[in-house]
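User: Please fill in residues for this 489-position structure.
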C-alpha cells in the first residue's frame, strides 16, 4: 500500500478506537473499495461494527462474513469463533433463527477445543440464556461456570460485565433474588461508570433493563431506563432528517441503541401512568429501532395498544396489537382484554388460556400479567372457580416481590369479593392499594379503589371519587364512566 493509503487506514483505526463510527465507516469503506487494497480480518470486524453503528446492518453482516473467512484462512480459530458468535447475534436480531443457530454451532466448532479464552465467554453466555429459556437451570449454571473463569482472567470490563449479568440471570431464574440483583448491580455499575465500550454499554443497558422487567423489579427498571436514555442522547454527529425514516432505519449520526432503550422506557412510563408520553415515545421508538432489533418495536406497539385499550380507543388498540403480532410479539394478555372490552368474552377466554398454555414461565412479570388477566376474564364470565385457580397460582408466583404481590392481592381480593367474602376482600384489597400506591402505579391503584367501594360501604364514596379523578387524569374513559355511574347510584 502507498503511504497515503496506510495513513488513511491508520486514521480509520484511530476513529474506531475513539468510537467515531461514522468517520471510521467512511474511511474503511473507501479503503475497501480500492481494488489493490485489502483489509485484514480485524479491520473487517471493525468495518462491521462501524457499519452497524452507522445504520448499515446489511453491510455489517457482509463484512463480518468476510472477516470470518479471513480468520479461517489464517488459521485463527479465536477470531473465527468471535466472528461466528457475532454473526449468530446479528442473524438472531434479523429474525433468521436457522442462520443464527448455524453460526452458533460454527462458533462452538472454532472455540470448544481451545484452552480457556475470552471468546468462549460469549458462546457460554448464549448457551446459558437458551438453557434458561428452556427451563434447564442445570445447563444454564454449567454454562455460567464455563464463562466465569475466562471472564475474570481476560481483564476485559466488557466480558466481565456480561459474565456478571449472565450469572444474575441464572440466579434470578432460580429465585435467588438478592444474589442475582447484587451481580446485576455490579454489572450496571461498570456501565454507568463508563468503563465499557459503546457496544457493550448499549447491550448491557438493554439486557439489564429487560431482566429487571422480567423479574418485576420496577425500581431498578425506572432508574436504569433513565440512565440509558441519557447515555443515548449525546449531541448528534449527523443532522435530523426532515422526514422521519422508515421503521428499522437508524438516522445517520444517531445512537442505534436509542430506539431499543426508548422501547424499554415506554413500558416503564405505561406503569407509572404517563400514558400520553408513553404513546408518543412508542411511536418514536418504532421510528428509531435498527432493523435487527424489531422486537423492540413490537414491544412498543404492544404497550401503545394497552394505553389505547384502557382509554377506550379500541380500533386503534386492535391496530397496535396487530403491528406487534406482525413483528413477532404475541399480543397477550392485552388482546384478550380488548376482546373482553369489545363484548367478545369467549374470544377473551380462549386467547388468555392459549397464551398461558404456551407460556414458558421464563418471563416472571409476563406470566403474572397473564394470570391477572385470566382472573379478570374469568370473573367477567362468572367463572369464579377459574378465577380462583388463576389467583392462587399468581399468589404462589408473587412471593415477596412488591409488584407481583400487589397483582396477587388484587386478584385474590377480586375473587373474595365474587365469593361474597367481604372481610378477606377488604383486607386483601387494602393491602393491594398500599402496594400499588407505594410503587407509583396509579391506574391499578384506582381499579383497586373501585373494588374496595364494593367491599367497604363506609368508604365507598371516597374511594370512588379518588378513582374517578385518577381515571379522568389518565384518560381512561371507560373506567371513568363506570366509576361515575357507581357514584350516582
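Assistant: Residues filled in for all 489 positions:
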Amino acid at each position: 500500500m502507498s503511504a497515503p493509503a496506510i495513513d488513511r487506514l491508520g486514521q480509520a483505526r484511530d476513529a474506531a478506537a475513539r468510537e467515531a463510527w461514522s468517520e471510521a465507516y467512511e474511511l474503511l469503506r473507501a479503503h475497501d473499495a480500492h481494488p489493490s487494497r485489502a483489509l485484514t480480518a480485524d479491520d473487517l470486524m471493525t468495518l462491521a461494527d462501524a457499519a452497524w453503528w452507522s445504520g448499515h446492518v446489511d453491510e455489517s453482516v457482509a463484512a463480518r462474513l468476510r472477516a470470518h473467512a479471513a480468520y479461517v484462512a489464517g488459521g485463527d480459530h479465536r477470531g473465527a469463533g468471535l466472528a461466528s458468535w457475532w454473526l449468530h447475534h446479528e442473524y438472531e436480531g434479523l429474525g433468521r433463527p436457522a442462520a443464527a443457530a448455524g453460526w452458533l454451532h460454527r462458533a462452538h466448532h472454532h472455540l470448544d477445543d481451545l484452552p480457556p479464552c475470552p471468546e468462549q465467554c460469549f458462546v457460554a453466555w448464549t448457551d446459558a440464556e437458551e438453557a434458561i429459556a428452556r427451563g434447564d437451570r442445570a445447563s444454564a449454571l454449567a454454562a455460567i461456570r464455563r464463562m466465569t473463569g475466562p471472564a475474570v482472567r481476560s481483564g476485559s470490563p466488557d466480558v466481565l460485565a456480561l459474565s456478571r449479568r449472565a450469572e444474575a440471570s441464572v440466579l434470578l431464574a432460580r429465585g435467588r433474588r438478592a444474589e442475582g440483583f447484587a451481580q446485576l448491580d455490579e454489572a450496571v455499575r461498570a456501565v454507568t461508570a463508563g468503563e465499557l465500550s459503546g457496544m457493550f454499554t448499549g447491550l448491557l443497558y438493554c439486557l439489564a433493563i429487560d431482566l429487571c422487567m422480567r423479574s418485576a423489579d420496577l425500581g431498578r427498571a425506572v432508574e436504569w431506563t433513565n440512565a440509558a436514555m441519557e447515555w443515548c442522547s449525546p449531541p448528534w454527529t449527523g443532522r435530523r432528517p426532515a422526514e422521519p425514516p422508515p421503521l428499522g432505519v437508524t438516522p445517520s449520526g444517531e445512537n442505534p441503541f436509542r430506539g431499543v432503550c426508548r422501547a424499554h422506557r415506554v413500558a416503564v412510563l405505561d406503569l407509572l401512568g404517563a400514558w400520553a408520553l408513553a404513546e408518543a415515545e412508542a411511536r418514536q421508538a418504532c421510528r428509531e429501532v435498527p432493523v435487527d432489533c424489531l422486537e423492540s418495536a413490537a414491544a412498543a406497539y404492544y404497550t401503545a395498544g394497552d394505553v389505547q385499550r384502557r382509554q377506550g380507543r379500541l380500533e386503534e388498540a386492535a391496530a397496535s396489537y396487530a403491528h406487534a403480532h406482525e413483528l413477532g410479539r404475541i399480543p397477550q394478555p392485552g388482546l384478550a382484554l380488548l376482546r373482553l372490552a369489545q363484548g367478545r368474552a369467549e374470544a377473551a377466554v380462549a386467547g388468555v388460556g392459549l397464551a398461558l398454555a404456551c407460556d414458558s414461565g421464563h418471563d416472571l412479570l409476563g406470566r403474572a400479567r397473564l394470570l391477572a388477566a385470566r382472573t379478570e376474564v374469568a370473573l367477567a364470565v362468572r367463572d369464579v372457580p377459574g378465577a380462583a385457580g388463576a389467583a392462587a397460582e399468581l399468589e404462589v408466583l408473587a412471593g415477596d416481590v412488591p409488584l407481583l404481590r400487589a397483582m396477587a392481592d388484587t386478584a385474590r381480593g377480586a375473587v373474595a369479593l365474587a365469593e361474597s367474602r367481604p372481610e378477606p376482600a377488604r383486607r386483601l384489597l387494602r393491602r393491594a392499594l398500599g402496594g400499588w400506591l407505594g410503587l407509583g402505579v396509579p391506574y391499578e391503584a384506582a381499579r383497586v379503589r373501585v373494588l374496595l367501594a364494593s367491599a367497604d360501604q363506609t368508604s365507598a364514596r371516597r374511594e370512588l371519587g379518588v378513582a374517578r379523578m385518577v381515571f379522568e387524569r389518565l384518560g381512561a374513559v371507560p373506567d371513568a364512566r363506570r366509576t361515575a355511574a357507581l357514584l350516582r347510584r
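For context: Confidence is low (pLDDT under 50) at residues 235-253.
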